């Protein structure tokens, strides 16, 4: 039952992961290049959280638009998940948690890459 | 063992508009129950309330006498096929059937036209085929009760006949609740029949009652 639910969550995420994924990719690339251009060496670098705030809000804004899209235009598909025992709210909260988890994991990797790049300068 | 599902004292209003009032219905495993009603009489709302995805002002849904809140949380008890297409278009038949615990070879056996391209993404099929797949998946899934909202509409007559046979075979293990405007097809498969008229539910004992209550001219 749990396995089936997890599969259902991943299937739901698969239906709309591209726009949030592109926002995550864009944010990481932008943070990487902005940080590189503004920081001269690794001693000035205190982590990418210095540059993250605006991108976090861009991410949150696009996720809110995505949420509206899912509620308005994917309403019929919710029956597919309801038939697997899943509530709409449970499904939406879980997929957005997964999306933020991927966002922060990507930021962590960007942070690591940036550190390595600055150290090697 | 026979299981039963009862809906009782169901009242639904949208603002000032009354839709359902004091509905009582009883469904049993081993039987096909039909629900008829004019457009806008509240048939689909009734099914959604039973399923638990629509909140009524008041309703009491009981499985074997025990009240259940949000029955859809227990897919082994009830499943529902809505009027609209509900399966994500990018899913392949194999995945759909796996998730719902149905057998794809069984579908291919009964409807060989799917055997030519048995694993296309769902969105690639025609509307009629999609409808047939959705009906099949819900009908065959391991659940005590299944509710089908307009399963015969949009399906070609040859498939309707086969589907009726599948419904008759499938009822031995579950309770099947169907609503459709194609009342002749519905009458062919149902053991019990209800009509929703003037917001209330009426038990139909004889097809002549449909005229008496104004469903047929």
What is the element layout, followed by pairings?
The complex is a heterodimer of chains A (121) and B (217).
Chain A (H helix, E strand, L loop, with lengths): L1 H13 L3 H21 L10 H25 L4 H5 L5 H32 L2
Chain B lengths: L3 E11 L2 E12 L3 E6 L5 H9 L6 E6 L2 E2 L10 E4 L11 H7 L4 H7 L16 H14 L4 E5 L7 H14 L4 E5 L3 H7 L2 E6 L2 E4 L4 H5 L5
Parallel strand pairs in B: 3-8, 3-9, 6-7, 7-8
Antiparallel strand pairs in B: 1-2, 1-4, 4-5, 9-10
Helix pairs in contact in B: 4-5
Summarize the structure.
Chain A is built from 5 helices and no strands. Chain A has 121 residues and is mainly α.
Describe it for me?
The complex is a heterodimer of chains A (121) and B (217). Chain A has helices at residues 2-14, 18-38, 49-73, 78-82, 88-119. Chain A has 121 residues and is an all-alpha fold. Chain A has one domain (2-119). The mean pLDDT of chain B is 94. Chain B has a single domain (4-212), classed as Rossmann fold (3-Layer(aba) Sandwich). The A-B interface holds A 4, 7-8, 11-12, 14-15, 76-80, 82-85, 87 and B 51, 53, 70, 72-75, 79-82, 84-88, 90-91, 95, 99-100, 138, 141.
Which key terms come to mind for this protein?
heterodimer, B: 217 residues, alpha/beta, Rossmann fold, six-stranded mixed beta sheet, four-stranded antiparallel beta sheet, 29% helix
Number of helices of chain B: 7
> SSE order of chain A in H/E notation?
HHHHH
- Find the structural class of chain B using helix and strand composition: alpha/beta
- Strand line-up of the largest beta sheet of chain B: 6-7-8-3-9-10
Unreliable parts of chain A: none
Query: Whole-number average pLDDT of chain A?
Result: 90
By secondary-structure content and strand pairing, the structural class of chain A works out as: mainly alpha
Roughly how many Å is the radius of gyration of chain A? 18 Å
